[in-house]
């Protein structure tokens, strides 16, 4: 039942085999090795958890990324004799075909007849009634390692519900494709908490779902700890490149988009379109206001299931084409790229409108995504990138020390 993802630890072989699975493979690891490792997700190690599931009524938190081998976790577990009584779906829905931010309704799975409970809309947290006929909850969703990617919100709500209702949570862990980077300002002020950020972490936290669950338990995010059982990823460490076999959400439809997402998602809350409304999301940036300053152009449109109302819809945007950007640069620096948002702000002819309006409570959509209003103010004031990064300390170093307590894999 294993899906084998071949990942090379880079060293001596990096000169001859640099592009096994995606164009810009990760050159972080420095120790020379002469062998390949097979990363095996928690879900694919069925022998480690099937006996634990047998005879129990299972609630499964899953979406299209939840796979065992080449089949969905739902289909695979049913075929292996596991009784799944309910499936819980996060943002984008169980099938991963709902646009970002779109509420998802409950339904009955046409293939299996299993009830699907949406955890994105009116009901973010499983209720006592929804858990009543469940003996064990299982969480199997691919994450991409950002505070503003809402799967970690769903994880916390599921853990809270399990703790409150005396249910154990089994996590089938998966690699974090952005585990190499722990960067950005740390959210510390509760006024910047929102549906795209409820945790006191930097913009990228560098943990897998299993590690993040331990962090939530250990750092007091829950009124009472959730009983956890984690099936670890085999042959994995945070320095390894990992190409996702399934798109984790509609607008992360390429490996390049997954890797650029931490840097480009900060443009939400500005006048810059980050590729939503195209089939190249999170790999391009542009605005109609930048005409004449950049040669590259594109026109975002409404795309059902991806982006129905993208910013600058039906207008030609001019800006940066990052589809061929060498991702090794970010990996080597272990940083989010700040230069693009600084560059496009400087290039904008109407800087007063570049960032989303500040609301009555002093918070803008940009600030909510970043987790502070400091970055917006620094960019407007012309603070250098080096000084901006210095301002993230000592918060960033303090978080890294906390994070280290919960890691399951070498860093």
UniProtKB/TrEMBL annotation:
UniProt-listed Gene3D superfamilies: 3.90.1150.140, Uncharacterised protein PF07075, DUF1343
Highest taxon of the lineage: Bacteria
Residues in Peptidoglycan beta-N-acetylmuramidase NamZ C-terminal domain copies: 259-409
Domain Peptidoglycan beta-N-acetylmuramidase NamZ N-terminal positions: 58-255
Pfam families: NamZ_C (PF20732), NamZ_N (PF07075)
Protein name as it appears in the record: DUF1343 domain-containing protein
Organism of provenance: Pedobacter boryungensis
Lineage: Bacteria, Pseudomonadati, Bacteroidota, Sphingobacteriia, Sphingobacteriales
């Amino acid at each position: 039942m294993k899906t084998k993802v071949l990942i090379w630890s880079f060293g001596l072989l990096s000169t001859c085999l640099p592009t096994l699975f995606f164009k810009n493979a990760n050159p972080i690891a420095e120790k020379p090795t002469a062998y390949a490792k097979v990363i095996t997700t928690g879900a694919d190690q069925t022998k480690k958890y099937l006996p634990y599931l047998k005879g129990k009524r299972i609630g499964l938190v899953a979406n299209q990324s939840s796979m065992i081998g080449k089949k969905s976790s739902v289909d695979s577990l049913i075929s292996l004799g596991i009784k799944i009584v309910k499936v819980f779906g996060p943002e984008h829905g169980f099938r991963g075909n709902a646009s970002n931010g779109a509420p998802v309704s409950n339904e009955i799975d046409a293939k299996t007849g299993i009830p699907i409970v949406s955890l994105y809309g009116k009901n973010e947290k499983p209720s006592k009634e929804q858990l009543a006929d469940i003996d064990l909850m299982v969480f199997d969703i691919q994450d991409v390692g950002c505070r503003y990617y809402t799967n970690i919100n769903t994880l916390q709500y599921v853990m809270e519900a399990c703790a409150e209702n005396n249910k154990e949570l089994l996590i089938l862990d998966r690699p974090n494709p952005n585990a190499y980077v722990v960067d950005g300002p740390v959210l510390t002020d509760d006024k910047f908490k929102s549906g795209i950020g409820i945790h006191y972490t930097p913009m990228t936290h560098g943990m897998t779902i299993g590690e993040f669950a331990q962090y939530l338990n250990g750092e007091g995010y829950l009124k009472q700890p959730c009983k956890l059982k984690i099936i670890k990823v085999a042959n994995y460490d945070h320095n390894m490149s990992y190409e996702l076999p399934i798109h984790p959400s509609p607008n992360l439809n390429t490996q390049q988009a997954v890797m650029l997402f931490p840097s480009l998602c900060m443009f939400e809350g500005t006048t810059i379109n980050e590729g939503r409304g195209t089939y190249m999301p999170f790999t391009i940036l542009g605005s109609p206001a930048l005409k004449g300053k950049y040669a590259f152009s594109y026109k975002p449109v409404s795309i059902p299931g991806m982006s129905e109302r993208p910013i600058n819809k039906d207008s030609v945007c001019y800006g940066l084409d990052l589809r061929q950007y060498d991702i090794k640069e970010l990996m080597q620096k272990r940083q989010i790229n700040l230069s693009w948002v600084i560059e496009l702000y400087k290039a904008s002819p109407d800087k007063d409108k570049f960032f989303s309006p500040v609301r009555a409570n002093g918070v803008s959509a940009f600030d909510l995504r970043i987790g502070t209003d400091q970055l917006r103010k620094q960019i407007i004031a012309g603070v250098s990138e080096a000084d901006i990064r210095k301002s993230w300390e000592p918060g960033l170093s303090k978080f890294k020390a906390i994070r280290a307590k919960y890691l399951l894999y070498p860093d």
